[in-house]
């Protein structure tokens, strides 16, 4: 293990590159072993039980806990040293978001502990140990990310690469486990609803992993078992956010950064009222649609068809608005001539790759639906609404990705220093300075000059003299007045141009705020069980039940993550604009 010192030599870069390759291969193998173990449990493979999977996950979490404790202790001993930081990584709003998801994850762990206590007679001890370990892991990991997400590690780099990549893939496996558990629950509910839609030719066999014993307190067991599945979406988002933040930390190990001042971009509600109002309307209506959908779907064939029709019409309207907003934003960008920031930035690069990569999940489902509509022999009325919905999903993500990626790569507008420090001052007979009220007063000639004072523009130096009176003073005053009017006209022209720029910026901020709330709205339906890809039924007839269910279960987690990641990116765009 080497400690960071000065700039690495050419030869010294090879061990670090090898360490990066070795650590990435270690992480991939760690993930593949866990993935196969998860799959074996899901398909009821002989000799593989849930306790084996949980034991593997517990071991990974304990190893990560040991590494994080070692890193925190070492950081405390070296806290006086000045360390490089990646100002783009670990934004405060991102830390707040992961903290919120972590709190809900802790509630989920408490529900699992309660569930284990009620079924302790027939559950493996690992099912009780897992939520306790996971809770400790969650608390320490959130603290670690709050304190060290921006770190650029320059010492013990080889060891740290393995520690960080271990943490990345541990979170990815925990995410996979959560996705699989939640998907199996959704699949069981979907199978029970299929008969109501008239698809009686599909054999319904529930994939049940329920305990084979009675609960000690029936009411609590029902609360715990049902509540767990409503909390899983937040647990899933927590682990994927943690893995992305840790991945950026891994990419930053040994990185050399330029030391420059990073401008803080706080979020402000001022100027985004219109976007917030329309976004909140979409959010409220989406929640109402989801509630009605979950109540109606599966009640009867007529109610299910009405629920699907209602969902598609609402989604078509929202997606059409989002496409329009995105196109307007891109047109504004085309009217501006601003360069792009192409500097090396692991966090920004990962954001762009995740947007395009996770959008592929929705695109896969949309193209599957389009193909099913084209090839199907019978078309229930509600399936025709699926066609424009699927087309709009493809187009909307295409436009939104373009808008977000261009936004995060655009350089922030820099205001000319001479304009920023422009001040209008007056010099009185006593040689004291005072600011004039406004451009308008100057342009109209109604300044402190009316009180016998001589106005002048302050640009780094004081331009003006005391008025000594007499004819010479009168000429000097007249000359200064003419100069003042010329400067004021120029400043007024700049002010008008700047007003146009501010209006464009205000429109962009409102669009970003609107799209932010729309993405949160579209995250809610699939995250909480409103999935027409399951309930439509047409795709299952064309592709077959099992193949289509596999496609949905693989693509849906990426589709859900896309919406949350897009919302996070749009929040950043709003702060930056």
In short:
Helix content is 70%, strand content 2%.
Q: How would you describe what is shown here?
A:
The structure is a single chain. With 577 residues, the protein is an all-alpha fold. The chain folds into two domains: 16-80 and 88-197 and 214-256, no CATH class; 269-412 and 500-576, no CATH class. The protein contains 16 helices and three strands. It has helices at 13-42, 50-77, 92-118, 126-148, 157-194, 218-251, 273-296, 301-335, 346-375, 383-409, 417-420, 439-443, 470-527, 532-535, 538-543, 545-576; strands spanning 423-427, 433-435, 454-458. The protein has a three-stranded antiparallel sheet with strand order 2-1-3. Strand 1 and strand 2 form a beta hairpin. Helix 2 (50-77) runs parallel beside helix 4, helix 4 runs parallel beside helix 6 and helix 13 (470-527) runs antiparallel to helix 16 (545-576). The protein starts with 12 loop residues before the first helix and ends with a helix. Mean pLDDT is 77; it is low at 1-12 and 415-472.
Q: In terms of topology, how is this protein built?
A:
Elements: H1 13-42, H2 50-77, H3 92-118, H4 126-148, H5 157-194, H6 218-251, H7 273-296, H8 301-335, H9 346-375, H10 383-409, H11 417-420, E1 423-427, E2 433-435, H12 439-443, E3 454-458, H13 470-527, H14 532-535, H15 538-543, H16 545-576
Antiparallel strand pairs: 1-2, 1-3
Helix pairs in contact: 1-2, 1-5, 2-4, 2-5, 3-4, 3-6, 4-6, 5-6, 7-8, 7-13, 8-10, 8-13, 9-10, 9-16, 10-16, 13-16
